[in-house]
Every structure is written in C-alpha cells, then in structure tokens.
Amino acid sequence: MVMKLELNIVQTDLITLRPYVTGVIATNGKLDDVSIKQLMNMQEDLHFGIGRKRKKSSIGLHDADKISFPLIYSTTSREHKFVPLNSNTEHTIDEILTNTEVGQNYGSVLGDVKQVPIITDSEQNTISFPPIINSALTTVTPNTKNILIEVTGIDKESAEDMLSVVISILQTAGFDFNELKISGNKNSTPQLKNRTMIYDTKFTSEILGIEMNSSSMVTCLKKCRLDASVKGKKITCTIPRYRFDIFGPMDLVEEIALGYGIANIEPKLSPSTTIGQKNDVTIKTGLISKTAVGLGFLEAMNSSLTSKNTLYDMTKRDSSEIISVLDSKSQEHTILRDSLLPSLLENLSKNIHESYPQKLFETGVVFSKSQPFSLMITKLVKLEKLILIYWKISELELLW
Questions:
Q1: Domain housing 228
Q2: CATH code, domain with 43
C-alpha cells in the first residue's frame, strides 16, 4: 500500500468543539464476519466506558484501501451531504442527527453548533462524521485488508487510550501497523510508548499477606502480560500502553494476586482477640426490615450513588446542597443521595407494567454536607432512614 499517510487539521473551530484526533493504519490482516462483529462490539464498549458515551472520545474504523490520503479534519455545515454507514442514499448532517437512531442517541454531544466535525480525503469524499457515524464508502468487510483507525475527542489522553486498546486487539488478530502522521492544532503523531514502574516487593507481604520471593512476583506479573525484572530489592515493571488502568503500586499488587491465583490465597483468622458483634444501627434496621417484610412490603436496595436527574430534577427538589463525585465512571452514579425517596420513585416508574398495588421499602444511609464525615460515623443512627411506599393505581402513600 503506497500512500501518503497523513491527517491534517485545518480549522480553528475544532479547538473548542472536538480538538484532538489521532490514528494509525492496520495493514495486512484478515477479518471474517464474526471478528468484525466482535470488533464493532468492542468499539461500542469503549465508547460507553472510556469515551463517556462518545462525548470524551470516539473511534472510527475504515477500509483504508477506499481512502485517498492525505486526510483532512475540519468542520462543515449541517447541510453537508454524504452516504452514511448502513445506507444507500445521501443524507444531510441534520437528517442524520434527526432521523437515525445513532444521531438521536449521540447528537447531543455536538449540541446546537452550526459547524460540525468532518473528516474528508484528498478527493473530497466524506470519510467520517465524528462522533456520530462513518461513511458507507469505507465500510469494513471480510474483504478489508487494511484498516484506518481514527479517534477524535475532547481529551488527548482518552483518545490515545482508546487507540492503544484497538491496536492491541488488532495486533493479536495478525495485523501490522503503519504510522499515520498527524499535524495541526497542537496534535501530534501518537507515540503509544510503554511505561516503566518501580515496585517495592514489601507490598506483596504487607497487602496480600503472602511471603513470596522477587522472582515469583516477576512470574506472576508476566502471567498478567506485564514484563518485569528484578533490580536489587525492587522490581522494574514495564506497563504496555493499553494498560492505562495501572496507576501505582497497589495496582501491581492486584496483578500479582491475579497471577498467583486468588483461589490459592489461604484465608487467615485475624490475630485480634475481640469478639465481633452487630452494632446498634444494624440491629435496629434489621428489625425494621423484618417488620416491613411482614407487612407485605418488598425491600429495595438502591445505590448510595445516583444521578442529578433522579435525585433532584425529576422530583423538583432543591439541589443547592448537592454532593458530587469527581471523575465518576457512569453518568448514573455521580451524586451521593440525601434522600431515599427519589430512587424508590424511580423503581416504581420502571415497574409500571407490574400488577398493583406495589409496596416497596428501603433502609439506607443518606448524606448531608451539614454532617462532617466523623459525625456521620458516630451518629449513623440519625442518618439511617426508612421509607415505605404503598403504590396504587390512583394514589401514592408515603409512610416514614
């Protein structure tokens, strides 16, 4: 494949809209229908996780032999037309966002901007409309031998994280890789270099309670596909680029435990001579739960983490004392609850197809800014709450 493998960013609009783009060319590989389906499923998993439902970053996979390089990453109007993936007819950007399932699901990522991101080739063919949909022109099929992987996003590290995972998967499928030279708007060709981490062997015995020599730890790390070597009393561990889940020594402790085998770790009794017993909160809530069950109520066990929409917006409650969680992995688990009622109402809303009456109850901890964490531990009884819901077709009764 002889081509000028370049991608150039040419419009400043992208700086605020979706400024980062990266990519690579996978060559000389073979795919069948099953492997293509698995690849697409993996793509959507990455969109949901690392990509935060495509807002943070998104991937496009293309048949590279259908593309005339170099590529151009720019913006275009919503009247721009092309044939989208899984279609035989041209549609405008607006039509794609309004009439297609993928447009309806992810169009909110772009908001109401008049100019949207677009990737075109040297012959002005539309290749991708990120983060929504690819062009039908570059559909990956069992006949595809060379694949362009392009990732766009609002976070450079997230985009390269995604790219590294796709590369590792395609590498195991037998693909080779050619560099895609990227320039413009502070973007650069991805390096995807391994990291080196120094691990102190004392953590293994302190955290896992396992006495193990350094060479055995190296063996455990290598079982988890982490290259490692002994240097004095410490271990030098090489972290592949796609293992961005490893942040520090505690993560390596976990890898050693997995390499050793969780089932092989023998449980030991605590050296403490004290006798464990239930605290007052557990005893009281247990009695309450038994009473509620005896009255015919069904116990709900909702997460202490919920969403702003569930906790405040849908119930029209005051959100001035909201307690948010930083860097949550899910949009549905970003707020610490200060009431049990909203989640129970959500339970009811998702069970309208079930027979009535519906009788639910929940006991659990709620959180408040007015209660410091130390007081929350010592005065947990005050924070424990019980809500009983008796739901008929025509009325809703709340019993606290």
A1: 195-264
A2: 3.50.40.10
> Which residue, chain included where needed, has tokens 């006991």?
363
CA distance 16 to 14: 5
Residue type, 287: L
Strand duo 176-179 + 20-27: pairing: antiparallel
pLDDT digits (tens, 9 = 90+) for 350-397: 888 888 888 888 888 888 877 654 333 333 333 445 555 555 444 444
* H helix runs in the chain, sequence order: 14-17, 33-48, 93-99, 101-106, 156-172, 202-203, 214-223, 249-260, 280-294, 308, 341-349, 373-378, 380-383
Picking from 183, 214, 246, the residue at the C-terminal end of a domain is: 183
Q: Is position 328 within any domain?
A: yes
Q: Which of 153, 160, 169 is nearest to 191 (CA)?
A: 160
Q: For the domain that residue 254 is a member of, what is the CATH number?
A: 3.30.56.10
Residue 274 lies in a domain: no
116 class by beta-carbon count within 10 Å (0-12 exposed, 13-18 middle, 19+ buried)? buried
Distance CA 292, CA 175 (A): 60
Number of domains in the chain: 3
For residues 84 and 119, membership in a common domain is answered with yes
Asked if residue 71 is part of any domain, the answer here is: yes
Same domain, 12 and 119: yes
Starting at the edge strand found earlier in the chain, the sheet holding 358-365 runs 298-299, 358-365, 384-391, 396-399
- Whether the pLDDT of residue 324 is over 90: the answer is no
Looking at the domain assignment, is residue 188 inside a domain? no
**pTM, entire model:** 0.64
**Partners of 359 in beta bridges:** 390
CA distance 104 to 132: 9
Based on its alpha-carbon atoms, the radius of gyration of the chain, rounded to whole angstroms, reads 27
C-alpha triplet 374, 379, 384: angle, nearest 5° = 120
CA nearest 156: which of 15, 44, 39? 15
Beta strand 195-200 with 298-299: parallel, antiparallel or unpaired? unpaired
If we measure between CA atoms, which residue out of 164, 173, 163 comes closest to residue 142? 173
Please give the Cα distance from 313 to 296 (Å, whole number): 31
Does 39 share its domain with 159?
yes
